[in-house]
Amino acid sequence: MExxxxxxxxxxxxxxxSTWILVVGRTWTQVKWELEVRYPRHPIVAQPxxxxxxxxxxxxxxxxxxxxxxxxxxxxxxKWVYAYAKAVGSKKTTKK
Length: 96
Description:
By secondary structure, the protein is mainly alpha-helical. It has one domain (17-89). The chain is 75% helix and 0% strand. The protein has helices at residues 8-38, 48-72, 74-89. Helix 1 crosses helix 2, helix 1 (8-38) packs across helix 3 (74-89) and helix 2 (48-72) packs antiparallel against helix 3. It is elongated, with a radius of gyration of 16 Å. It starts with 7 loop residues before the first helix and ends in a 7-residue tail after the last helix. The mean pLDDT is 88.
């Protein structure tokens, strides 16, 4: 099979999947650490597996907007991690 025989959608899927893996790999440990340090009593810190699954799925929604920038720039990655942790941690939960 030659490169000209490969459909365009396979190129797009490859770029999407590799960007997704790189974004999750470069940001997850920092997001987890940031939440544990800044919001140690937040309910999401107590359930890291559930948070990881939700993070991995939901990152696909905004991947076209921020994926390449986060993969290529440490400054942008750090801004993303801080903004995400602040947004998640500032949500107030009510217990009944």
